[in-house]
Amino acid sequence: MTLQSSGAGHHASDATGRELARLAPWFHNLHLPSGHQTAPDHPLGDFPAYKWAQISRVIPQDLTGVRALDIGCNAGFYSFKLAARGATVVAIDSDEHYLRQARWAAQQLDPEQRVSFEQRHVYELGRSSERFDLVLFLGVLYHLRYPLLALDLIARLVRGRLIVQTMTMPSAAEGVPPVPDLPIDERERLTEPGWPRAAFIEHQLANDPTNWWAPDDACVQAMLRSAGLRVVDTPGHEFYVCEPSEGPDHAAPYRQVELEAALGLSR
């Protein structure tokens, strides 16, 4: 999304306020120990604090010894929350502007330096062999031209839990049970209510040219299953808590072949 705040608020006359203004615009409203907020006039309200409230209960209070990955960390709100519970966090974002904000805010919100910020794109995770106990993938999926590739890459790194949040489109019907093999002459069933579907956004949504997809709930869950994950909880609207699947994975051989090709590993 491109909705952002200047961050200057009513504090532009003091040193912290001037830094907030210098680093503007802000998308995360961080509450600083000084009493300042980075985006107090955010059009979505106290964002992303109200999102955190939805997933906080599914994340252990004590994350001591936990290695976490925050994909699309922005100014670091979620990373700082995990660090405050004791996690060591690798926080990545492709936008250096947000990382500058995060590194500055870390001086106040991450005194033990548990979070390391890196400028990396989600697709670059294909070069990583590290596995994480907890992975956050919040507000990123619908900004990607290749969302299923991203999920496949991320799933390889999850040894504990993955929490996904994505914009979805409304759906009036419950998802249909997965069909093991749809005959080619029954393709009209693809139009039935409840079949997983995603709307492709060729131009812009919410004045943002990077909003490419709006999957419905059934589509998100089907994509997660296809990436070798199972949904174990939905703590809030558009949130999915996942773990590596323990059952049969019909997509595994096809997924592996395409991943190797995408990563330049195929012969």
What are the SSEs and their pairings?
Layout: H1 15-23, H2 49-55, E1 67-71, H3 77-84, E2 88-93, H4 96-109, E3 115-119, E4 132-138, H5 147-155, E5 158-165, E6 198-200, E7 213-215, H6 217-226, E8 229-233, E9 239-244, H7 252-262
Parallel strand pairs: 1-2, 1-4, 2-3, 4-5
Antiparallel strand pairs: 5-9, 6-7, 8-9
Return the CATH architecture of the domain at 121-171 and 184-262.
3-Layer(aba) Sandwich
General form: globular
Could you name the ranges where pLDDT drops below 50 across 5 or more consecutive residues?
Answer: none
Number of strand segments: 9
Give the termini separation. Answer: 39 Å
What Rg is obtained from the alpha carbons, in whole angstroms?
A: 20 Å
Strand content: 15-25%
3D structure, described in words:
- The chain is of the alpha/beta class.
- The chain has a domain of 130 residues: Vaccinia Virus protein VP39 (Rossmann fold, 3-Layer(aba) Sandwich).
- The chain is built from 7 helices and 9 strands; from the N terminus they run ααβαβαββαβββαββα.
- The strands form 2 sheets. Strands 3-2-1-4-5-9-8 form a 7-stranded mixed beta sheet, with helices on both faces. Strands 6-7 form a two-stranded antiparallel ribbon.
- 36% of the residues are buried.
- The mean pLDDT is 94.
Q: TL;DR of this structure?
A:
This protein has 267 residues and is an alpha/beta fold.
